[in-house]
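REVIEWER CHECKLIST
Item 1: Sequence provided? yes
Item 2: Single chain? yes
Item 3: Sequence as submitted:
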Amino acid sequence: MATSPLMSVYDRWTQPSYEIRVRGTASPFKYLWGSAGITGDMAFDKPLHFHVRNDVFGEQITLWQVKSGTSTEIGTLMPGECVTIPLKNVSSGVYATCELESNVACLIKGTS
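Item 4: Structure as written out by the authors:
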């Protein structure tokens, strides 16, 4: 799968950033933030901002939030779309699924 040259714009991010390839809809899920192995609740005094961008050449992805062991669908991102998710009371993380394959750029930024 080719990555869009537009993804290189994220090379200038100075906060923790990374790219993840998401494939399929079956477990084990590809966590964008967190892990299925984290079982205790986490609470932050100030929310972290978790920025997610789906590659322009990718497939539609579905984002899920896991809290207290329960997955809740956040919604979908089409190719090229992005969203910011505040991480204030998330117990184990955020993961993504898609029918085929997509590269997803992620950035975590604290609030001041």
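Item 5: Key structural point noted by reviewer: The chain is about 0% helix and 50% strand.
Item 6: Recommendation: ____
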